[in-house]
Amino acid sequence: MRRVAANYIFPIDSAPIRNGYIELDEQGTILKIGELTSEMSSTEYYNGILCPGFINSHCHIELSSLQGKFEKGTGMSGFINQINALRESAPKEVRIECIAQQFEKLYNEGVSAMADISNCDESFQIKKESPIYTRTFIEVFGTEPDDVENVITDAKRLLDKAEEIGLDASITPHSPYTMSPELLTAASAQGLSKGYISYHNQESQEEEDMICRHSGALYENYIQRGLSVPPATGKPALLHFIDRISKVHSAPFNENILLIHNCATNQESIDAIKSVATNLFWVTCPLSNIFIHNTLAPLQLFRKNSLKILVGTDSLSSNDILSMVEEIKCIQNHFPEIPLAEILQWCTLNGAEALSIENVLGSFTPGKRPGIVLIDNIDFENMKLTDQSHSKRII
């Protein structure tokens, strides 16, 4: 048996415990938690807070070689131009090495599981060998209706590769502006059949302008490149998604649907999707959203609607660092009224529920094996992280 303790432990499924301890067996299974007493010996004591292993609920790990190569603040139109130009700018062996380095870094800093986007198989072997649990979303694109069959066929081949080496994976649509309506429906059908979709939703006002009214920088970008665009709907982009998945099967949708970014989401969109779907997860990637658009998701609106919020890092094409602690700091800096305990739930248990691994990860519930993360340099008076806070895996 091993016992670890700290100034505070955050069990997540119960209130924080001052001078709390965690007992666990040699396999890392939680046996007991409680408040440390002076007579307890053989206890490892850490200065800081202990929380369960993080769940990074949105990442593009295969873009790790792009760190430092992108101009910031370009909006989605400018970002797309950069990703098209730079995606394969490094040799394959360099790209794979960067993936491996980031996996090791994420694990050492406390990530226990990840929802990761794949457009190729370069990360698959690393995922198989990593102690981080990964659910892989095979993401598809295609603006031309005639290409649907070929795109889905290619995605199925990639899905087969993932499953052959034991990865949990499913096909998923990317976003409304990178897909013909027909492909959006076809890719959604594939994802829903597996029970999971990870969908880039209302990431920017540019997306809303394009889908709603055929205007804005993103729309002009597509027209200049001679690409097809979905018909203007006159409604928020999320309602277009609802319309397309409704062609797969009728509501309610009980599958796990991860909606990513959500920076332009409004009450109309929330009401519409909640009326047809039961297992919704709203993923915010704050540092990425600031990097590209200098904006953030309306987290107070999400809290007002009791939405299940998750946190992701996105990729090193749209972020300077893959760090869950840095994402927490960003949220705290912009939303200082949100309690740390709530943000940590977004980063742990909520993400575990989205990936259906909450029976093992996400909280210090006896019987689970979530991993234990130390976050140091805490402002205990205000119970907030500081600029000097870092995370480190203890278990």
Molecular shape: globular
Structural class: alpha/beta
The CATH superfamily of the domain at 54-322 is Metal-dependent hydrolases
Strand content: 15-25%
Largest sheet: 7 strands, mixed
The overall pLDDT average reads 97
Structural notes for this entry:
There is one protein chain. With 395 residues, this protein is α/β, with parallel strands linked by helices. β8, α4 (148-164) and β9 form a beta-alpha-beta unit. It is globular. Strands 1, 2, 3, 4, 5, 14 and 17 form a 7-stranded mixed beta sheet that branches. A 4-stranded parallel beta sheet has the order 6-7-8-9. It contains 14 helices and 17 strands. The chain has a domain at 54-322: Metal-dependent hydrolases (TIM Barrel), CATH 3.20.20.
Write the layout of secondary structure elements.
Elements: E1 2-9, E2 17-18, E3 20-24, E4 30-35, E5 43-52, E6 54-59, H1 75-86, H2 92-108, E7 111-118, H3 124-129, E8 133-140, H4 148-164, E9 168-173, H5 181-194, E10 196-201, H6 205-213, H7 217-224, H8 237-245, E11 253-261, H9 267-274, E12 277-284, H10 286-293, H11 299-304, E13 309-311, H12 324-334, H13 340-347, H14 349-354, E14 372-375, E15 378-379, E16 384-385, E17 391-393
Parallel strand pairs: 1-5, 6-7, 7-8, 8-9, 10-11, 11-12, 12-13
Antiparallel strand pairs: 1-2, 1-3, 3-4, 5-14, 14-17, 15-16
Helix pairs in contact: 4-5, 12-13
Give a brief description:
By secondary structure, the protein is of the alpha/beta class.
What brief labels describe this structure?
single chain, 395 residues, alpha/beta, seven-stranded mixed β-sheet
